[in-house]
Amino acid sequence: AQSVTQPDIHITVSEGASLELRCNYSYGATPYLFWYVQSPGQGLQLLLKYFSGDTLVQGIKGFEAEFKRSQSSFNLRKPSVHWSDAAEYFCAVGASGGYNKLIFGAGTRLAVHP
Amino acid sequence: NAGVTQTPKFRILKIGQSMTLQCTQDMNHNYMYWYRQDPGMGLKLIYYSVGAGITDKGEVPNGYNVSRSTTEDFPLRLELAAPSQTSVYFCASSPPFGSYEQYFGPGTRLTVT
Fold it and tell me: Which among B43, B49, B88, B94 is the top mutation candidate for probing chain A, defined by the most A β-carbons within 10 Å of its own β-carbon?
């Protein structure tokens, strides 16, 4: 069965430090992969997506993610974190069976210290 | 463009009461979804719809019902509310041409006591 694992429930970084959020997926074929961000009290906003082609994808707000097929991973990175990046981050994979359904990971909550 | 809108933002229900969570999208998307979000659990799909008159169960449909009479609206009905339905509910929509990208509403926080 398809699944998405985000190993880190909670991460704390200092403002200006680099960030990497981990995501591992289980899917037989080439996956459609997504990162969404949820600010407190808000809905989910798409940060970036991978469908095919270049394995390093750029997103909004200075985020990027790298697809590594050999490791079944799609980790999210940012070189310098801002206090406004404090939020919950969800990794998702397109589900088999169509209709644009997504399977979400449990999320990683990011706290940023000044 | 309003995108996906949800009402109400917050609601407290007593056990056994019923209510309807409203969801409307103005992007002419065929596909719509209802999720619930519980702490540490991510988002779980309750129901989805691929067009007016067509709905199907997701991962956690028990205790919920949906209908889709128009492209724009996809209400979620809770009958006989239970404490286990305390959650944050998100509606989302997606265009039908295979991008898998979903657009989310701001959510409804529901408490059942």
Answer: B43
